[in-house]
Amino acid sequence: MTPFDPQLFRQQFPLLNNYENIDTESKGDKNPLVYFDNAATTQKPQQVIDIANHYYQVFNANVHRASHQLSSQATIAFENARNLTQKFINAKSVKEVIWTKGSTESINVITQSLARNILKQGDEIAICASEHHANIVPWQIVAKQTGAIIKVLPLSSSGHIDLKVIDKLINNKTKFVACAQISNVLGKINPIQTVINKAKSVGAISIIDGAQTVAHVAVDVQALDCDFYVFSAHKMYGPTGVGVLYGKQALLESMQPYQGGGEMIKNVSFEQGTSYNELPFKLEAGTPNIAGVVAFAETLEFIWPLLSDIDQGYSRYEKKLTQYCYQALVTIEQVEFIVDGVPDIPVIAFTINGHHNHDIAIALDSYGIAIRSGHHCAMPLMSYLHIDGCLRVSLAAYNTFTEVDIFITHLKSIVSEFEPEENHLENSHDETIAVNTSPEVKVTSEPKAAMDRIIELFVNTKSWDSRHREIMLLSRELLRLDKTLRSDVTLISGCESKAWLYATRSNDGTYSFTADSDAKIIRGLLVIVLAAFNHKSSQQIQSVNINQYFSTLGLMQHLSPSRGNGLIAIVDKIKTLSA
Ligand code: PLP
């Protein structure tokens, strides 16, 4: 095999080479895309894209059911993907490979088709504190259905499952043990072999979530001897909407399908009821994602040689890149890693002292750098670590050292350019920080003038970069809410970052709103929103054409739907309070 060449590897991903970040254009320079959100989903190589197109253009037909040639061709390609997957994870039989739409669905199949029938009141399910919601919520649902109890395996300071307490937490009451091999936030390889062995020793069924493993480490389910292993194609350069549920055949045989229809039946009768098909079809209801599965076969052809290369060029490159990025982050004084030590895969999570993680991520986005901020679908982990959220940089082997340098340079300049957040709540006695404690807010400005001023500020901004700057400057104008006014009553639900809104009605029937958020970007957006609604009557508030206002400012097209929805949530709350 030819040695791994990162440049050649990168060239295979058309999006990375074609993406024009026009909207981040700043002073005439185009910022190239720096895509560091690979733990969410990876980009796709040309050969995978081509195969999906080829299926639609050349042999699109439904699988299994028809007796015509086109369907046979589609079925052969579809089942070939299953054979390859069996070999890729070293499953004993092709019957042990079930197609789902992703890791999430795979876990839901286990909880609803198996756990629901096994669990009794007081039985225990062990999961880890760092699980993705996909490996928490399905267990919570089945625990509620059956009366079972969830036990949480704690973490060590390095972010690995803490084995010191597993003898206590995995015991003869435990019926299921479900753990991620690698957390999508911490990037550490968990000691899952010990966990699997422990589960086996008490007769519990083990489920390993390999969603973050498969792009980085070769998997051998027979060597692991786990009962189930789940993963998603889209995190390993494959298509979205395709997942794998590996299960030991005897367990899969014992499962009762929780979804019916399509190829999962043997016989359906009104009189005798329904008998189910053989494995693997029994657990695959409805028309599957045929194009996706066919493209997944090509994905395996693409990634397999990289993972099994004895020279380990691909893995070594990923490790070097991780180390490089980690060490560069270490040089930024304000960076605080959320657990100790360099991660095992290129997933690095941290916070920046004095700065809200959303502010940093949005500022980086204005330079074309895509990283993640927030809870990363691991809210219990955030509470466990006593943080609201964090930043996550997740790299792939197509990323480069130069991209890391670009990221670090911008991060450093953002951190030094933005004023660090004062903890205004702690310092509310400090005269330099204006804090709103009074429910009586004086009417000080004409509503129309306030909106016009905002429009004027934005009218000449050509790029998201400059709009972002304006929003951040506006954030300074928001009078901070006192701690006592930040409550469940004033909390705006639907906002990605926490935000609070407080309303008062004057004698003349007009409303005054004050609001707050920990993220500067949200505070800037709040200034914009409040300019449209403050000091107006209920009737005037209801008739504000907010969409037109946002689009005049060029906002909606730049904010992610969730942050965009947050804006809508703020508007909804204002309208409800004043209705
Ligand atoms: N488990 C882990 C560790 C993940 O990182 C993810 C996705 O980020 C999932 C499960 C869910 O994967 P999917 O959304 O593809 O079902």
What does it look like?
This protein is an alpha/beta fold and 579 residues long. The protein has three domains: 146 residues, Aspartate Aminotransferase, domain 1 (Alpha-Beta Complex); 193 residues, Type I PLP-dependent aspartate aminotransferase-like (Major domain) (Aspartate Aminotransferase, domain 2, 3-Layer(aba) Sandwich), CATH 3.40.640; 132 residues, Sufe protein. Chain: A. Helix content is 40%, strand content 15%. The chain contains 21 helices and 20 strands. A seven-stranded mixed sheet has the order 2-8-7-6-5-3-4, with helices on both faces. Helix 8 links the parallel strand 5 and strand 6. Helix 5 packs parallel to helix 6 and helix 17 crosses helix 18. It starts with 5 loop residues before the first helix and ends with a helix. Bound molecules: pyridoxal-5'-phosphate. Pyridoxal-5'-phosphate binds next to helix 5.
Helices and strands in order:
Blueprint lengths: L5 H6 L2 H5 L15 E2 L10 H13 L10 H21 L7 E4 L2 H16 L5 E5 L8 H10 L2 E5 L12 H4 L4 E7 L11 H10 L3 E5 L11 H4 L3 E5 L10 E5 L1 H6 L10 E5 L3 E4 L13 H19 L4 H18 L4 E3 L9 E6 L4 H9 L3 E2 L1 E3 L4 H6 L5 E5 L6 H17 L17 E2 L10 H13 L4 H12 L4 E2 L17 E7 L4 E8 L2 H14 L2 E2 H5 L3 H8 L7 H18 L1
Parallel strand pairs: 1-13, 3-4, 3-5, 5-6, 6-7, 16-17
Antiparallel strand pairs: 2-8, 7-8, 9-10, 11-12, 12-15, 14-15, 18-19, 19-20
The structure holds pyridoxal-5'-phosphate (PLP).
The site of pyridoxal-5'-phosphate (PLP) has 13 residues, from helix 5.
